[in-house]
Design a protein that fits this description.
The structure is a single chain. With about 375 residues, the chain is α+β, with helices and mostly antiparallel strands. It has helices spanning about 5-25, 30-35, 40-45, 65-80, 80-100, 105-115, 230-265, 280-305, 315-335, 350-360, 365-379; strands spanning about 120-125, 140-145, 145-160, 165-170, 180-185, 195-200, 210-220, 270, 275. The strands form 3 sheets. Strands 2-3-7-6 form a 4-stranded antiparallel sheet, covered by helices on one side. Helix 4 packs antiparallel against helix 5, helix 5 (about 80-100) packs antiparallel against helix 6 (about 105-115) and helix 8 packs antiparallel against helix 9 (about 315-335). The chain starts with 6 loop residues before the first helix and ends with a helix. About 50% of the residues are buried. The structure holds acetoacetyl-coenzyme A and flavin-adenine dinucleotide (FAD).
């Protein structure tokens, strides 16, 4: 077992940290307050190689390992989770899904531009009536010979308005249950595709979350990913990797809040001493540091298993389940360490606390992660 990061991994971590400090931090409060999508910043992230980190260089990707991806996600998420959720969806759902299961033509046409951040992608599984219970979706992709006729509504789609390419999971043959579902690549300008309302959210307020409507959208057969009926298995396999990204996002939110709390505890004095000299505050910091270290180990273990091409579905579910709880606990306590100042925007921890909550909900709620873990343990 080797806990030492490589030179390359350390360089990626440092580059992500610099980018987050210099390019994301300055406008983050304004983007959060006014719900502004970080379009410019994401473009730069693409130029720096953060939008297609693990993609093979022959498709314009960074050819990096999943450990580097976790390190970069943590650093970006310390500052701006609206930017990091776009990064996560693009890297681990859209790019990975197309690279792993797409045809050579799909990789040429879509992956090469997605990997550089020239365009970004969205992953469309959830619907108004089907979130956790993902097989009960109602969107249909009727087989019409050389194309699918797509009808229905998707909900809560990250990058909903900013994406150019959408991976849409839809039912072709209801009788076949989850084996009758397909995954289709839909382009934004296809006729009959419409971006619906933008959600007003508690956290990740810069992220553009939209409903999407499909009315008789003709999607060519060559845009199907994998064999007929592979769509649900495609979604599940892709989400295993996505959950590593969101676990790393939760880790970043927690470590960002901890770093702020630690710094503040050295600056603020009460009753004649730094507040960290009161054991109640020192113990909070000790708990935060221990939980964060544990979450980090779980994230890195899941990433390592993925890089070793071993089964990582249980490990990614454990990492997301644990890191998202640590993000909640740490951010709540970081606000407490800041006292009244923690409750105002200027000190950042209140935003991190609002951002933390979503990590327990998307890419499978914490209850769903427990289903994944327990089914693995019990099988
Ligand atoms: N990895 C690989 N395959 C999996 C899997 C996993 N983690 N979980 C299920 N599967 C496969 C099963 O093996 C089975 O396939 P086979 O029949 O070929 O063996 C198939 O999926 C159906 O499995 P189940 O019978 O277990 O299905 P189920 O209806 O009981 O549901 C579930 C299983 C785990 C609850 C699943 O529905 C689920 O993960 N729900 C959560 C959905 C989710 O995570 N949505 C996220 C949307 S994207 C998003 O949120 C992005 C964002 O915010 C940024
Ligand atoms: P429900 O499934 O209705 O769950 C409600 C509650 O019941 C939860 O607590 C849940 O854990 C619990 N529950 C449900 N079933 C069980 C069970 N079997 N056992 C125990 N408890 C259970 N989706 C996408 O496809 N793409 C995206 O890009 C995307 N981005 C998102 C961005 C945001 C900001 C948000 C809020 C959501 C996003 N989602 C996206 C959707 C997200 O994945 C779903 O919200 C999530 O999977 C939960 O589904 P739901 O909201 O329908 O809740």
């Amino acid at each position: 077992m080797d806990f030492q990061l490589t030179e390359e991994q350390l360089a990626v971590q440092a580059a992500a940290r610099d980018f987050a400090q210099n390019e994301l931090l300055p406008g983050v409060i304004d983007r959060d307050t006014h719900e502004k999508f970080p379009a410019e910043q994401i473009k730069k992230m693409g130029e720096l190689g953060f939008m297609g980190m693990m993609v093979d260089p022959k498709y314009n990707g960074g050819g990096m390992d999943t450990i580097s991806y976790v390190l970069a996600m943590e650093e970006i998420s310390k500052i701006d989770s609206s930017a990091s959720v776009s990064m996560s969806v693009n890297n681990s759902l859209v790019c990975w899904g197309i690279e792993k299961y797409g045809t050579e033509e799909q990789k040429e046409k879509y992956l090469k531009r997605l990997a550089t951040g020239e365009i970004i992608g969205a992953f469309c599984l959830s619907e108004p009536e089907a979130g956790s219970d993902a097989t009960s979706q109602r969107t249909t992709a009727e087989d019409k010979g050389d194309y699918y006729l797509l009808n229905g509504t998707k909900n809560w789609i990250t990058n909903g308005n900013s994406a150019s390419v959408y991976l849409v999971i839809a039912q072709t043959d209801k009788e076949k249950g989850h084996k009758g579902i397909n995954a289709l690549i839909v382009e934004k300008d296809m006729e009959g595709f419409q971006v619906g309302k933008k959600e007003e959210k508690m956290g990740i307020r810069g992220s553009d979350t939209h409903s999407l409507m499909f009315t008789d959208v003709k999607v060519p057969k060559e845009n199907r990913i994998g064999e007929d009926g592979f769509g649900f298995n495609f979604a599940m396999a892709t989400l295993n990797g996505g959950r590593i990204g969101i676990a790393a996002q939760a880790l970043g939110i927690a470590s960002g809040a901890y770093e702020l709390a630690l710094k503040y505890s050295k600056e603020r004095k009460a009753f004649g001493k730094e507040i960290n000299q009161h054991q109640a505050i020192a113990f909070k910091l000790a708990d935060m540091a221990t939980n964060i270290e544990t979450a980090r180990l779980l994230c890195l273990k899941a990433a390592w298993l993925k890089d070793q091409k071993k089964d990582f579905s249980q490990a990614s579910a454990m990492a997301k389940l644990f890191a998202s709880q640590v993000a909640m606990d740490t951010t709540v306590e970081a606000v407490q360490v800041h006292g009244g100042y923690g409750y105002v925007k200027e000190y950042h921890v209140e935003r991190l606390m609002r951002d933390a909550k979503i990590t327990q909900i998307y890419e499978g709620t914490s209850e769903i992660q427990k289903i994944v873990i327990s089914r693995n343990i019990l099988k």
